Each structure stands twice: as structure tokens, then as C-alpha cells.
Amino acid sequence: MHLHITIARVGTLIFTALLTITLLTAERTPADAATGVNAQGTQRAVTLAAPAAAPVADLPFVPVLPAPDPAVAVLGSETAPAAEPEPEPEPEPEPVVVVPAPVVAAAPPPAATDGSYVLASWYGPGFYGNRTACGQTYSPQIAGVAHKTLPCGTLLVLSYGGRTVTVPVIDRGPYIAGRTLDLSNATRGALGCPDLCTLLMQYAR
pLDDT class for 35, splitting at 50, 70, 90? Predict the structure, then answer.
């Protein structure tokens, strides 16, 4: 009698244990499944496989465009070279003012050695006491002639009517067309020349 009761109790315990295990297995949450908890409550490691890398040939091709050139201007769908800046105009050179050298009038060449005939006049009253162009005081006794261009002190040999005198240039004149010399009073008297006379003029050697 006691043996039958013991077997009945053992059977009841086994049935209860199996039922409990069944219920525990059915009630496991997805989190338990992910962590690998088994029916006995032990946790097992779960290895998650990494996704396989896609082959290079299957990847989409993305073209790499070069950076735009700033020197090229994009007009619509066409490209055109950017306009170059216009060069600055070169400054015009300043005009050079050329100042001509002063022309120094040369003294007229001397007459031929055989002389030349010139028309001469004389000047006297009204000029006495005046200063000549060459710096002398004009008087009736001074010997000399007036000439338009010959340097002061130039010695001239004058011949008229067989008379010859050598006198210097002491003044400027005459200022009447056609006349070459103005004789001083003393020179006119030495030659015996009237108011107008044509005489031979030579340069003293």
C-alpha cells in the first residue's frame, strides 16, 4: 500500500516537472531567444554573422568630376574662355623741346687784298662831344670811320685822289642805303674827300 502511494507521488512530481518545463519553454520572450536562454535557464552565446561585403562590381558607378576652371566662364551649356583684361595704354612720351643753339654771326670776310671801291660820306657838327659805339669821345680831330658790322679797332687803308690813310673803325654807321663808310672830319680832310666820294677800301696787313 505504501509502495503504490510512493510511485503515485513520484509520477505526479515527474508530470509536474515536465509541465513546468513545457510552460517555461513556450513563455520565453524573443529577448531570451536572442540571448540564447535554454529551457534550463542557462545562457548560450549567439554569434551574429556580419553581412557579407558586396562585390565591387555590384556597386553603383559614381563619376568624379574635375573641379571647374575659374578661368573658363560657363555660358548656358557651352564653355567659353574668360575675357582677358585689356592692357593699359602706355603713357605717351613727353615731347622733347629742342632749343636751338644761338647763332653767332661771324664777322664778314675781309675784302680782297686789292681792295674794293665803296661809297663814303662823313659826319661832323651835331655829333661832337657824343660817345661813339666803340667808347671814344667824338671830336673834329679824331681819325676814324663808322662801319655797320666791322669790329671796333679794325684798321682800314683808304685811298682817294692819290692820297692814302690808315684809320680804325670807331663807330657804327652810316644808316643811309648805298653807303658803306662814314668818315670822321679829320679823315675826310686827310683824303680831301667831299661830302660823298667813292674810294678804295682795303684791310691793313
Answer: very low
Q: Return the C-alpha torsion angle 20, 26, 30, 35, nearest 10.
A: 40
DSSP string, 135-198: SPBP-TT---EE-SSSPTT-EEEEEETTEEEEEEEEE----STT--EEE-HHHHHHHT--SSEE
Non-local CB neighbours of 53 within 8 Å, separated by 6+ positions: none
Taking residue 50's Cβ as centre, other Cβ atoms within 10 Å add up to 6
Inter-residue contact 171 to 129 (CB < 8 Å): no
DSSP lists the bridge partners of residue 119 as 198
**95: cis peptide before it, omega within 30°?**
no
The x, y and z cell numbers of residue 188, run together, are: 675826310
In tens, the pLDDT along 89-120 reads: 777 777 666 555 544 444 444 444 568 999 99
The closest alpha carbon to 178, from 123, 122, 118, 107, belongs to: 118
Question: Which has the closest alpha carbon to 158: 112, 199, 197, 99?
Answer: 199
* Terminal Cα-to-Cα distance of the chain (whole angstroms): 198
SS3 33: helix
